[in-house]
Amino acid sequence: EKNPDGIGAHLRYRFSCRSDVLKVIQLVNHNAAINEHHGLSQQDITDILNLYPDAFNAA
């Protein structure tokens, strides 16, 4: 969907499950390591994953 922030023409994406979010987190941290940047901290990862229900508890 279009991002309503008015900055550029980028899109906003939604994740439907926790496992997809985890894949993106792993990719972000992988790319950060390759480029010698700091990746997401364990606390960041926990905070992000807490926004998504466990696969076994999803309604």
The coarse overall form would be: globular
Helix and strand pattern = HH
- Supply the number of helical segments: 2
Percent in helix: 40-55%
Query: Roughly what is the average pLDDT, rounded to an integer?
Result: 85
End-to-end distance: 24 Å
In terms of per-residue confidence, which ranges show pLDDT below 50 for 5 or more consecutive residues?
Answer: none
Structural class: mainly alpha
Q: Estimate the strand proportion.
A: under 5%
- Radius of gyration (Å): 14 Å
Number of strands: 0
Main sheet properties = none
Question: Could you explain how this protein is built, in words?
Answer:
- This protein is an all-alpha fold and 59 residues long.
- It has a domain of 32 residues.
- Helix content is 42%, strand content 0%.
- The mean pLDDT is 85.
In short:
The protein has 59 residues and is mostly helical. It has helices at residues 18-34, 42-49.
Describe this protein with a few key phrases.
single chain; 59 residues; mainly alpha; 2 helices; 42% helix; 0% strand; globular
Topology overview:
Layout: H1 18-34, H2 42-49
